[in-house]
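hey can u run this one w/ nicotinamide-adenine-dinucleotide bound, need the structure tokens asap thx
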Amino acid sequence: MMLSLEDLNINLANYITSKTPDHVVVVTSKLARQFCLNKINDLTNCDIIEVENGEACKTLQSAAFVWEKLLEYKVNRKSMIIAVGGGSVLDLAGFCASTFMRGIPIMYIPTTLLSMVDSAEGGKTGINFKGVKNIIGTFQQADIILNCPTFIQTLPQLEILSGWAEMMKHGILEGHSLWKTIQNGILDASDPNWNQLIEQNIQFKQKIVQSDFKEAGPRKLLNFGHTVGHALEALKLNDPEINHGICVANGIMIESLIAFEIHLCNTEFLNEINSIFNRDFPKITYDKSEIPQLREFIKADKKNDIEGIKCTLPNRIGDVEYDVIVPIELIEKVLLNWISV
Ligand SMILES: NC(=O)c1ccc[n+]([C@@H]2O[C@H](COP(=O)([O-])OP(=O)(O)OC[C@H]3O[C@@H](n4cnc5c(N)ncnc54)[C@H](O)[C@@H]3O)[C@@H](O)[C@H]2O)c1
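ok here u go:
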């Protein structure tokens, strides 16, 4: 359910009253605190753990910092942790909550478009380690997620685009109304239609996750764009103009080119994806000398196994398949072509 700011405050107060936790601790980032937490009445006087903005918080050091604070605040299994922030804060806080005392209840209040339509849902938590994205983590659903689309109004356009990329992925997988939404183009941040779009995207993801929580089968569909996307993100970790969704959008485009090379999708599909990509997203480039690094990140991807590199690749709009084994040499060839055109 999408909540107005007023309803968020009411729902939150009711939930806390009904659960009677002995302690409420908030994990947030500086910007999420400034733009969102300060508007949530019941949380401003709680113990607050502030971590770094964005991807920089998904480190072992930040996790240790959160665990230290949980000890200091004497958090126990009757306490409640509330994560207020984007996907990075939610991934970190979810990871810390699921490991501290073998699991403390957590509530998510996502504050970015991406965290509403994607990362808050589905119970994946995690941090990056040795440059590999989300390589340490757990599966643990939040006890409750409160979505307030008003929060997206303070996001820079680059962060709106990041969420839009995951919505494009959902659109390609679903192939009907969600794809139509993407074709129609991005909305202004204050457009009231976001409420419905966010809700539809959440429902789409929930349906897939419910069928395969631990990602043994169909949930792998949601990895479309992420084999190459995560490698780009690891390579460009310190570039402020590049975020998760921009990498996923580029990953979707590059993986579509891989699918074309192995005759899964046709030119018509490529042109359709290309026109949306060119309209909405910046192209990520890299130097030829960085391709070996990308190759190592791709080889370290969690989805691979002894059989080789496993990608989720498209046949056509609304028809995507997972566990497609792709030779690394072919991926390298497409990565080279990408910067040659
Ligand atoms: N767990 C999952 O299933 C899953 C799914 C998709 C993505 N992710 C992860 O999510 C992360 C990306 O999350 P994200 O796109 O939400 O970005 P983010 O959490 O990195 O936040 C981006 C920036 O926006 C700021 N911010 C947050 N809310 C704001 C607001 N309302 N107004 C202004 N600024 C605000 C943050 O402080 C940060 O500087 C990646 O690490 C990715 O791996 C996880």
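The chain has 13 helices and nine strands. anyway lmk if its weird
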